[in-house]
Structure prediction request, 552 residues.
Amino acid sequence: MAERPLATRRSLAALLAAVFAFLYIPIGVLVALSFNEGGLPTAWTGFSVKWYGALLSNGDILSAAGNTLIVGAVSTLIATVLGTLLALGIETRRRKGRALEALVFAPMIIPDIVLAIALLSFFSLLKLPMGLHTIIVSHVVFNLAFVSAVVRARLKTFDWSVAEASLDLGASAFTTFRRVTLPLILPAVVAGALLAFTLSIDEFIIAFFTAGAGRSSVTLPMQIFAMIRFGVTPEINALATLVMIVSVTALTLSQRLNKGVIAP
Amino acid sequence: MNASNARSTALMAPALAWLTALMVIPCGLILALGFFRRGIYGGIEYSFTLENFALLLDPLYAGIFLTSARIAGTATLIAVVIGYAAAYAIAAAPRHRQPLLLFLAVLPFWSNYLIRTYAWIVLLNREGLITQFLRMMGYEGEPPSLLYTEGAVIVGLVYNYLPFVILACYAPLSRLNPELAEASRDLGASAFTTFRRVILPMTLHGIAAGAVFVFVLSIGNFITPALLGGGRFQMIGNLIYAQFLTANDWPFGAALSMALIAIMLGLLTLQAMAAEKGAGERREVLDG
Prediction:
């Protein structure tokens, strides 16, 4: 498509610039305001990182951040193991049923609000006390689906003859997995884990419904939601900037490790 | 062979058990809950009824479904038009620049949904940047109320899901053989006819995938109407939320969830059918 007239190329470039402006101005404004000394959007009173300092002395935010890290780390760990095994199981299977595909795909498309209320009803019917542990097991549901999707994409181009060679040479199935298969698929496994971690630390609705009543299990997105409802404050701008940096870094890393799989 | 299938089952077992316990059974529970009565004190009375589904047709609730569909439909339409145009522009850029452009288009999608929505509160609120800008341009008097409007909800939805539409439309556009469009032009078709008769049909499945995604996520959305609509614009997601956390009518909330899932499955089925039909037609065009 290189033979376009100059005018067409220019208007396409202008269009793209407008779309990027739409996508980036809101985020850019937020980041800029987080460094505004006065903290108000009405006037720029000078560069400052004091709002970041204020975050560090806010106990609610710190404990919410701690909870989020616990939920993210534990659910990612469980989901990575289960999701990788699932991917290996499906891809070594001779016939893949439609029901199996639907079951594995479902957590990615089921509306959050539906899964959230389903889990809430389930836990309360079992009279299970809710807290961080119920958020963790709930997050594993969608996290394992995403990990297995990323690992499966890698396994589709995996050369199984390497694993067969190892088996032929007398290595056990476990040794073959540990020494041959796993090192080869490791980038995809790590990419899947990073994706799961980001999804988990950003997830709000399911955490909100499965956290129980206490303040002790408030996660960062829940804290942010509560703060936003009170209005715009410079602290939220600073917090939002930090959270965005973490997610974007983790996902960029995930992308690098796993070229070609663009993960929403 | 049998041994390998047994091993593959063993590998899948822990994940499938997890999904069964924490997705299939809870969703089955919701399915069952929809057929029970609401107890007097907000609990559940275990007697069979279809009342909850009849209530869905009540003008009040049917109205919320229609409002949700209107808001989600408008957001989908806008996102598809902008997203397709952006994807077209990316696919028309020099090959070596396309990966970077696509990456930049998708990057915002990777930041927290709450934060992306909050960014619009910063822009749209009464003392927000848009009001500031209007004042700078000499506007005087009451600041316009931009936040807590249907427009704000639509802008928020478009903003959040646009990257996905760009991604979905880019895939078929980038694979499009430029010779097809050239042939159409050589045979005397105008640029518009070429677009309508050649490019659009060949990329329709990307549009369908993007549109279904935006519509499904928008109609069940809870965060955007809550934050940008200020609770004034109830959508299905908010209604479900209310049944479980404030109104305490779980059976009706369950029935609402089922209706949402039914809409979603219906659209996904239509999209899959369109994709298959489209693939067949594309093969015909290419093979002769």
